[in-house]
Design goal:
180 residues, alpha/beta, five-stranded parallel beta sheet, 38% helix
Length: 180
């Protein structure tokens, strides 16, 4: 049976890596549905991810393609694993406090309790190390999210430190571990 991954892409310069991640997961036989925040769309277009996933990319919580169903509820019900990569500081905060103001956060809030949830943070080192972000990560871990730690690297802003999106191979390995 094909496993269904819902990949949420949020506003980080590393959003462009979602194209390669989507491609890799699809080639491994997973069905991938992509959700994007408005900020993510400033970095990569939905069309790119639609072509690679071969599924509609969901960008608007108010878009209801089937009038007989509530889209974010149906997306949550069909999810075998929820992956946010990259997970911005903003999205981590919104998830930690149960906001449902975007397609990403609404689907996350509607997930069945047993659905695995993975977060791959990506942001500036100072943002990642900020006590508020760390508290949000801890809060999310307490709620059952698994954090795929960012790596130490030269960041797009020119700083060097922990905050770069984890290697895609590590993210794929974390996904596969849930289906063994």
């Amino acid at each position: 049976m094909t496993k269904h991954i819902t990949l949420a892409v949020t506003g980080s310069i590393s959003a462009y890596k979602a194209a390669d991640l989507t491609s890799q997961l699809t080639k491994l036989g997973y069905q991938v549905t992509v959700l994007m925040t408005e900020a993510a769309q400033a970095f990569i277009t939905p069309l790119t991810l639609q072509v690679l996933s071969k599924h509609e990319v969901h960008t608007d919580i108010m878009h209801e393609p089937d009038v007989t169903k509530v889209n974010h509820i149906e997306l949550a019900k069909s999810t075998d694993l929820f992956l946010v990569a990259p997970a911005s500081a903003n999205t981590l905060a919104r998830l930690a406090y149960g906001f449902a103001d975007s397609i990403v956060t609404a689907v996350a809030l509607a997930l069945p309790a047993q659905t695995p949830r993975l977060l791959a943070p990506a942001m500036n080192t100072q943002m990642y190390q900020n006590p508020l972000t760390q508290a949000n990560c801890e809060r999310l871990t307490n709620f059952g999210y698994q954090i795929i730690a960012p790596k130490e690297s030269l960041l797009a802003c020119g700083d060097y430190g922990k905050g770069a999106l984890a290697d895609l191979s590590d993210i794929v390995t974390a996904v596969q571990a849930h289906f063994i």
